[in-house]
Amino acid sequence: MSNVPKVAVVILNWNGLNYLQKFLPSVLASTWSNFEVIVGDNGSTDNSVEYLQSVYPDKVKLIINDQNYGFTGGYNRVLEQVEADYFVLLNSDIEVTPNWIEPIIELLQSDDLMAAAAPKIRAYNQKEAFEHAGAAGGFIDRLGYPFCRGRMFYEIEEDKGQYNQSGEIFWATGAALFIKSKYWKQSGGFDERFFAHMEEIDLCWRLKNMGLKVMYCAQSTVYHVGGGTLNAENPFKTYLNFRNNLLLLQNNLPAGKAARIITLRFWMDLLALFRFLNEGKRKDAWAVSKAHQSFVRNLFSGKTKHGSKNKNIPSGSSSRKANLTGIYKGSIVVDFFAKKKTHFTDLKQEDFF
């Protein structure tokens, strides 16, 4: 019996035939000795399923959902049917390098409290630049605004080796998320209210609240196209980002603190709404308004994974304190827009937990 941990690389597909044709070969060429490639199809109508069945009948395991459950519901249903030591949630629009798995598994194997990790994410169409979705690891400020090392808001850095040190972060991108299967199960997986966007930050925050660690591995690099399903100009993406950021705070902060910060965020979001109007982006402004309406309407519904509340702390983790590493004590909004701090290296390291 092999002592090499089994890795399941799981790609959730929705009408991504072109990406599967282009990037599946790089995934199948991975050099890890004990891995399986699984494509979970989320109700595609573009012949993705037929393509996989005809071209990769033996190399790719296919799990078919009966409809599109979004990123969150899709992965929850697929991963219920997967057995492995590690799950790797991989976007279909990512090109991997041959040995991308080894350094991350080696890192995670070194400490049982390391629950999840992400590789370095570079842009597929601009290979020397970081990619928006995860760059060199995710962080969050005290008001719940997420940002990345290598990407703050719309400012993206070139990779010049400035973030070549692996270490602890606050969240790992869902574009290429490594997670120990036992912690995926203990945490309850994704909160399905999110549908898509920021669901991985919510998951990582729950892991951190369990006293676990989320890591960035600089020795592994993948290349992400980005915006494959929803591009940055899509008002639905605006809606999801604003609504889900509020859900993130509600889910993971103590009730009193969540109420205070969410109230402040409502006012800050209104400034964003007026900014959209000033730029002539009326649909985006309306998306912010709809996000607030949806959040307030569902504030007390408490629906999460498969329709049930999931805020329990798993047994065995209650004695561990919440892990705050990766939270920025300042306001990234003020620093970026008012103080013109556009690079992660502009922030003082002593201002992080």
Task: Describe this protein's structure.
It is built from 10 helices and 15 strands. The chain has helices at 17-28, 48-55, 70-79, 102-109, 181-187, 199-209, 235-252, 255-278, 282-297, 332-338, and strands at 7-13, 35-42, 60-65, 86-90, 94-96, 114-123, 126-130, 138-141, 146-148, 151-152, 155-156, 167-169, 176-180, 213-224, 327-328. With 353 residues, it is α/β, with parallel strands linked by helices. It has 2 domains: 7-224, Alpha-Beta Complex (Spore Coat Polysaccharide Biosynthesis Protein SpsA, Chain A); 235-322, no CATH class.
Short description:
By secondary structure, this protein is an alpha/beta fold.
Q: Ends: how far apart? A: 42 Å
Radius of gyration: 19 Å
Task: Average the pLDDT over all residues and give the rounded result.
Answer: 93
Largest sheet: 10 strands, mixed
Under CATH, the homologous superfamily of the largest domain reads Spore Coat Polysaccharide Biosynthesis Protein SpsA, Chain A
Top keywords for this entry?
353 residues; alpha/beta; Spore Coat Polysaccharide Biosynthesis Protein SpsA, Chain A; 2 domains; globular
Give the topology, please.
Elements: E1 7-13, H1 17-28, E2 35-42, H2 48-55, E3 60-65, H3 70-79, E4 86-90, E5 94-96, H4 102-109, E6 114-123, E7 126-130, E8 138-141, E9 146-148, E10 151-152, E11 155-156, E12 167-169, E13 176-180, H5 181-187, H6 199-209, E14 213-224, H7 235-252, H8 255-278, H9 282-297, E15 327-328, H10 332-338
Parallel strand pairs: 1-2, 1-4, 2-3, 6-14, 8-15
Antiparallel strand pairs: 4-13, 5-14, 6-7, 6-13, 8-9, 10-11, 12-14
